[in-house]
Amino acid sequence: MHKSGFVNIIGNPNVGKSTLTNALIGEKISIVSPKAQTTRQRVLGFLNEDNYQIIFSDTPGYIHKASYKLHHKMLEYVDDAILDADILVLMLESGQPEIDSILQDKINNLKVPLLVIINKIDISNQEKVASEIAACEQKFPKASIFAASALHNFNVDTIRNKIIELCPEHPPYYPKDIISDRYLRFFVSEMIREQIFYQFEKEIPYHTEVVIDYFKEEEEIPKIGAVIFVGRSSHKMILLGKGGSAIKKLGMKARENIEEFLGQHIFLDLRVKINENWRNDPNKLKQLGYE
Ligand SMILES: Nc1nc2c(ncn2[C@@H]2O[C@H](COP(=O)(O)OP(=O)(O)OP(=O)(O)O)[C@@H](O)[C@H]2O)c(=O)[nH]1
Ligand SMILES: [Mg+2]
User: Fold this and answer.
1) Residue 118: what pLDDT?
2) 107, 193, 199, 280: most buried by Cβ count inside 10 Å?
3) Ligand 2 centroid to 184 CA: how many Å?
4) Under 8 Å CB-to-CB from 274, ≥6 apart: which residues?
């Protein structure tokens, strides 16, 4: 008997969906940052064993008030994830477990198994978590409910075991020797974007997109060229910093992370270009990979 199924993780921004995805798979598939709306696309990561292949889908956080076209795209991905799940995982954050009523209705109309995870219990307290579990039992009567800390790997094994138990019988959907539907270029661009979320404040990360221009793998030390797109020249100035100091720091840290991921040295060439209104232009979004 072989099991395989799609396990889609949804929830508010910044609750720890990507951290959990990575912990469940045991590989860094999805970027993580302390800022909300880090994840912008669906990223599939596979957990392969002889008798199962679980396909996890990390998703963007559910945005209550979409203010530009990129937000609408991100919400579409969440809707897709609700519809194509074999098992749906709703992640909540202890201390602020509320979700949008529209989202709750969509979830309650589903026929597939639902797991509700109350995350970040390491920074909460027992009393609060107990009352949140009780509230979830009311709101989601058919769900399996777990308290967890994705960051500290608390209860992640239990959740993984429950998912494997619930997973339908099916042959593998993907080859067993790959761990994601995405190619290297995507991971590299995401690692650069992750650093932008860490190193720049306020609106900057939200006005930025990263595209890999070239990836010369055949060279002894591979050369990667990436373009950071921003909406306006004032953002470009901030990204470059005084005498190029900011982009230099960004490039250094991103290169370190990419080298660790690839297990080899690389050259990384970062350029900043203006791509006006990219967040709100459907054609530009499509070109940037938001299908
Ligand atoms: N204390 C604590 N922090 C956590 C836990 N899980 C995740 N975090 C932190 O919460 C922040 C957001 O984590 P992400 O995994 O990026 O959250 P996300 O839900 O994917 O966020 P978006 O992609 O923006 O929707 C990061 O700083 C994580 O380190 C946890 O169990 N405990
Ligand atoms: Mg995320």
Assistant:
1) 98
2) 193
3) 18
4) 229, 230, 231, 232, 233, 236
- Delimit the CATH 3.40.50.300 region(s) of the chain: 3-166
Q: Which segments of the chain belong to CATH 3.30.300.20?
A: 184-287
> Residue 13 C-alpha to ligand 2 middle, in angstroms?
7
Which CATH superfamily, name and number, covers 3-166? Answer: P-loop containing nucleotide triphosphate hydrolases (3.40.50.300)
* 37 close to ligand 1 (CB < 6 Angstrom): yes
pTM (predicted TM-score): 0.96
| CA nearest ligand 1 atom 11, residue | 34
Look at the domain 184-287 and name its fold.
GMP Synthetase; Chain A, domain 3 (3.30.300)
Please identify every stretch of the chain with a pLDDT value under 50, giving residue numbers as ranges: none
How does pLDDT run across 219-249, given as a tens digit for each residue? 899 999 999 999 999 999 999 999 999 999 9
Residue with tokens 């669906």: 42
